[in-house]
Structure formats: C-alpha cells, structure tokens
Amino acid sequence: YSITEFMNIVLNFDLNKHRRLKMIKSAKLLENHTIVCGFGRMGTVVCQELAQSDTKFIVIEKDPVNIKQLEKTSYQWIEGDASNEDILELAKVSKAKVLVSMVDSDADALYIALVGRSISKDLFIMCRATEEHAKKRILRAGANKVVQPTRMTAMRVAECVLNPAVEDFLDISGERIKDGKRIQLADLFVTKESDLYNQTLGEKGREMDELIIVGIRKSDKTFLFKPAADYRFQEGDCIIAMGSSTSYNKAKDHFNLDSVTPF
Q1: Can you list the pairs that 77-80 forms with residues at least 24 positions away whose Cβ atoms lie under 8 Å?
Q2: Alpha carbon distances (Å) from 183 to 42, 43, 138
Q3: 113 with 136: CB under 8 angstroms?
Q4: What is the pTM of this model?
Q5: HSE, side-chain direction, 13 A CA sphere, residue 26
Q6: What Å distances lie between residue 236 and 99, 121, 191, 220, 230, CA to CA?
Q7: Secondary structure, 3-state, the chain
Q8: Assuming Cys at both sites, which of 102, 157, 184, 258 could form a disulfide with 42, CB separation 3.0 to 4.6 Å?
Q9: What pLDDT, on the 0 to 100 scale, is given for residue 183?
Q10: Nearest alpha carbon to residue 212 among 237, 240, 253
Q11: Comparing C-alpha atoms, which of 119, 135, 32, 30 is closest to residue 83?
C-alpha cells in the first residue's frame, strides 16, 4: 500500500509538471490574445464569456484552490503571481492584445497595470478595484479602464427599479454569446485597413442595417451621439453599436473592423 501510494504521488507530480511545461510551451505561440489574471468568482465568469466567444486567452493564477478548478477546464493557464514580471512574460504579455486583472487585491492590480504598461504601450489594460482611491491610482499606473464590481452591481439594481422594461430588453442572463441572440452594446474600431475608413455613414449604412449606431467616440475621446449620414469615418473612431452578437461579428468581419482599440 505504501509503495502504491508513493508511486501515485510520483506519477501525479510528473504528470502535473509535464502538463504545466506543455502549457508554458504552448503559451509561447500566443499572439493578439487576452491575459486574465485571477480565476476567482469574477475571473471564472470572464473566462466563460471569452471561451463562448472563441477569444484566445490564457489565465494566470496562484491560488491552489483555484488552480484545481482550472485543471478541470480546457483553458490555457499558468501557475504564478500575475504581479510578477517574469510570469507575465511567460503569458506573452508583450504580444497580448488585452490584459484583464480580476485579482482581489487593489495593490496587486496596481502593480499588474504598472508592469503591463511598462512592457507594452499598446496593451489594453482593464483592472478590478474595490475602492475609489485605488481606482484613480490604478488608472495613473497605466490601466485603460478600471471597474468596481460592487458599484456596478448597485447601479444595475437601481436601473432595474427605474427602467425595468429596458433591463428586460437588455437582459443577458438567459442567452449565451455563442447562441448569437444576446442583445448587447458593443464597440468596433476603425483602422486604415477597415472598409469604413474615409467612407460616410450614408454610403455604408445599408450594409449595417442589422446594427443600431448609437454613437461614435473619436480618437481624441470626444463623443458624437447619433451621427448624421454625411459623417465620414476616420482612423481611431470607436463605433458604439447595439445589436445581437451575431450582427456584431458579421459587421466586424464584413468591414474588417477591430474589437479592441489600437490606441
């Protein structure tokens, strides 16, 4: 019995080591991917949504309990501290498109943003924060966007009370992204390679009839609500559109648009 147990421990150790080395090796091939730091309650939901939308991503996690949950999934992951520059490099942060921090610690989130921005100026960094003062610090550290889950949940509840019909229309709890039925607000970015570049909304509007164009955020962060037909698309324009995920992906492919800002 002792020999059997000892051999099981040795074999499991070797298998786990082999699997982790294989994951690190496969991570070297990643490019234009998303890095999710933290596989807690929020990180789990983020990964589920990314997986359903067929987005390339890799998870960084250091908690043994969460790692056991990761081992049950088909996700790519690396064991380690996401605030460690070497670990971020293993996840190919220099070639990543998006860095998402869902860690519980505001201090770790700040350092993740700082390290991520020091490695890549073009990386889109989104972090979770619990305190308002921490949000400001994380933004100064280099994050593009900081979310506060508690505040967002409270605002969602208030919106349900004030505008229940609107919330029912936009309710996402019963639909999956992959089903293509979810009504959502999404952003599409215009680059010089896009078919919309230097074209007017009137010229291309009929080809976007499955989406409702709510507004356009210019590269200088100014916002144009309900653009006119003579509006000419420029590089860096962020189109805010409403529609199903199927319509969103169709427009993205048809016009060669980007889903994450290059700026």
Answers
A1: 77/23, 77/39, 78/20, 78/23, 78/24, 78/27, 79/20
A2: 21, 22, 31
A3: no
A4: 0.72
A5: 14
A6: 20, 16, 6, 9, 18
A7: CHHHHHHHHHHHHHHHHHHHHHHHHHHCCCCCCEEEECCCHHHHHHHHHHHHCCCCEEEEECCHHHHHHHCCCCCEEEECCCCCHHHHHHCCHHHCCEEEECCCCHHHHHHHHHHHHHHCCCCEEEEECCCHHHHHHHHHHCCCEEECHHHHHHHHHHHHHHCHHHHHHHCCCCCCHHHCCCEEEEEEECCCCCCCCCCEHHHHHHHHCCCEEEEEECCCCCEEECCCCCCECCCCCEEEEEEEHHHHHHHHHHCCCECCCCC
A8: 102
A9: 73
A10: 240
A11: 119
Range name among 2-6, 95-99, 198-202 with the lowest pLDDT average: 2-6
Q: What is the pLDDT of residues 190-247, one digit of tens each?
A: 989 999 999 999 888 888 878 888 899 998 889 999 899 899 999 989 999 888 878 8
Q: Return the pLDDT at 262.
A: 45
Q: Which two tokens stand for residue 223?
A: 């916002």
d(CA 139, CA 136): 5
Residue with tokens 């070639």: 95
Residue for token pair 């966007």: 145
Closest listed residue to residue 238, CA positions, set 186, 190, 184, 185 = 190
Q: Residue 103 corresponds to which amino acid?
A: V
Question: Could you read off the pLDDT of 155-201 as tens digits, one per residue?
Answer: 777 877 877 776 666 555 445 555 556 677 788 899 899 999 999 99
CA distances from 163 to 158, 168, 169, 240, 262 (A): 8, 9, 10, 21, 35
